[in-house]
Design goal:
CATH architecture of the largest domain: Orthogonal Bundle
Structural class: mainly alpha
Number of strands: 2
Shape: globular
Distance between the termini: 11 Å
Largest sheet: 2 strands, antiparallel
Radius of gyration: 19 Å
CATH topology of the largest domain: Arc Repressor Mutant, subunit A
Strand order of the largest sheet: 1-2
CATH superfamily of the largest domain: Homeodomain-like
């Protein structure tokens, strides 16, 4: 459950518990109770749809890094495999085994995670669409909605657009 890195949206309760856990006046009994409640809350929260598991192997990580650095999605799967010193067939077996996602789904999610970061920094939707290599803003919106279950506009309108990573 909590044995791997994960991403989640911090709820108001969890935010309050985090503040209480690190308060200067927290005693050992209160700290234990707060931590127990935090752990319970964390086990109840599902991974965010933008959780991007990384492959475990050196080969998988090498290809993942190449894909993550290809912000505009210009390299084909074949080119990424070649630069990673592997084959497309190996990638098609490696990513589901190590990440639980096909390479295509993993790469799309990586692009959307990158786009969310750019959007949260104040970049315009059309600019982010172009920066992440989508053919049009409509194509970007469609892909964004598939991954996050919301449009980029809805993402920007949310008061809590910041995501938190935990280990």
């Amino acid at each position: 459950m909590l044995d791997r890195p994960f991403a989640l949206r911090v709820t108001p309760l969890l935010r309050s518990l985090l503040n209480a856990a690190f308060a200067a006046d927290v005693g050992p009994e209160k700290a234990e109770l707060v931590v127990r409640l935090m752990l319970h809350e964390l086990t109840e929260v599902a991974d965010a749809p933008t959780f991007l598991p990384l492959p475990n192997s050196a080969l998988g990580r090498r290809v993942a890094e190449l894909a993550l650095n290809d912000h505009q999605n210009r390299l084909s799967v074949g080119e990424l495999a070649s630069r990673g010193a592997t084959s497309v067939r190996t990638l098609s077996r490696l990513f589901p085994a190590e990440t639980g996602l096909t390479f295509k789904v993993w790469r799309q999610r990586a692009r959307i995670v990158h786009a969310m970061d750019r959007l949260s920094r104040g970049n315009a939707i059309a600019a982010v669409s172009a920066q992440t290599g989508f053919a049009s803003t409509a194509a970007f919106s469609s892909a964004f909605r598939q991954v996050t279950a919301m449009t980029p506009t809805a993402f920007l309108e949310r008061p809590d657009t910041s995501m938190t990573s935990a280990r």
